[in-house]
Structures are given as structure tokens and as C-alpha cells.
Fold this protein.
Amino acid sequence: MQVDLTADFFSLFDLPRTFRLNLSELDSRYRDVQAQVHPDRFANAPEAERRLSMQWATRANEAYMTLKKPLERAKYLLELAGHDLQAESNTAMPADFLMEQMEWREAVMEARSGGDHHELEHLYQRLRGDIDARYDELGALLDERNAPETAVDRVRRLMFLEKLLYEIDDALASLED
């Protein structure tokens, strides 16, 4: 088994290093790689081959999970290009964006405390549409305009929005219980 555990995730699946991936192609390439390296295929192999198979399968799983999710894929592309998000150390955001976040969170809290399932669904759909549009913009920034500095800002904003979407989803689930 010839493997390069240092290959980037795109190379691992022989995919272009681009934000806009064909996800069905990613799924297919992932299955192909897993079929070749899955530890079950090496159950009777020497210890070193079994260990390498496990490392390779783990790497393939990590790569697949990263490339499958748009936010993680964008972070990874920026990391490959040498751009640090500074997500933990730099939490500064523009005031208008922070105000918008506060308004969203207030609306979610109000709908949740009032048990307003319909309003939470409405908020979820609005936010999902906003996030999708932002991913379209991010695709253009990364794939066409080569604007990583702007992309870093957009990824940081999307991190906030994805967290808010999760909170709305959690609020919906709590009302269904």
C-alpha cells in the first residue's frame, strides 16, 4: 500500500483545491479510498500494515468530514493558503454585524420562550437563506477572485451564523419534546 499521510485532503481524493466541490464526486472518491484502505482488508496483514491501514482510514475520514462541510472546507482552504483565521484570539467583528447577531438572538430567545414553533421555523429559513448566499459569495472569493483576506472575514462571520443556526435548530427540537 503506497500512501502519503502528509498529502492535503484534496490530493488524497484527487480533487481540485477549490471551495465549490462536486459533493457526489467527493462521496465517490471517499468510498474508493475507504475500499482500498479499510482496516478490515488488513485484518490478517502484519502489524505494521494494519497500523498503516488504520492511519490511512483515519486520515481519509478526517479529510472527508472536512471537505464535506462548507465551513470546514473554507477554513481548510485558507489554512492551506497560509491564512490564519485567529478564531480563538480575534473575536472583533464589525458593530453592524454584532448588532444583527444580537437582534437574531433576541428573536430566537423570544420565539423559544413563547413556544412559537412557526416563528422559529421562519427564522431558521431566513437564516439558512442568508448563510447560503454567504457561501456563494465565499465561493467566488476563494475560487475566482483570489481574495483570501476578505474570505477570512466572511468565514469568521459564517462561524457565528452557523452557531446561531444550530441554536435555532436546538430551540425547535426542544419544542418538539
